[in-house]
Fold:
Amino acid sequence: MYVAGLVIPVPAEKMEAYRRWAEDGARIFMEYGCLEIVESWEDYVPDGKHTDFRRAVDARQGEKIVFTWQIWPDKESLDRAEARMHEDGALDVTGEIPFDAARMILGCFTPIHTMGREN
Structure:
């Protein structure tokens, strides 16, 4: 199992546009081998004393935090899929992206412990 995670600031009024954009993207990722995708809209994101999700993405007034992750079989599967998606043009953006992609955070992780799911 390999996890790609993102933290994204999205204008609150663009929640529905983001959901549609994420669903379209999820179809592409699943077609290229992603096992699971979870898109989560801010419900409780407290301000931290030293750092927090909002400061990490320089969230602006009226923006909500999206926390999303993708589960891939392994790092190699994600690397191959990304290369193929770029070659195929599957990741070419058409239309408006409903957030400022320059402030999005991406990270990929190898799990060291899981609970409640098969590995």
Notes: The helical segments are 15-31, 53-56, 75-88. The chain has a mean pLDDT of 94. The two ends are 6 Å apart (CA to CA). The first strand starts at residue 2 and ends at 11.
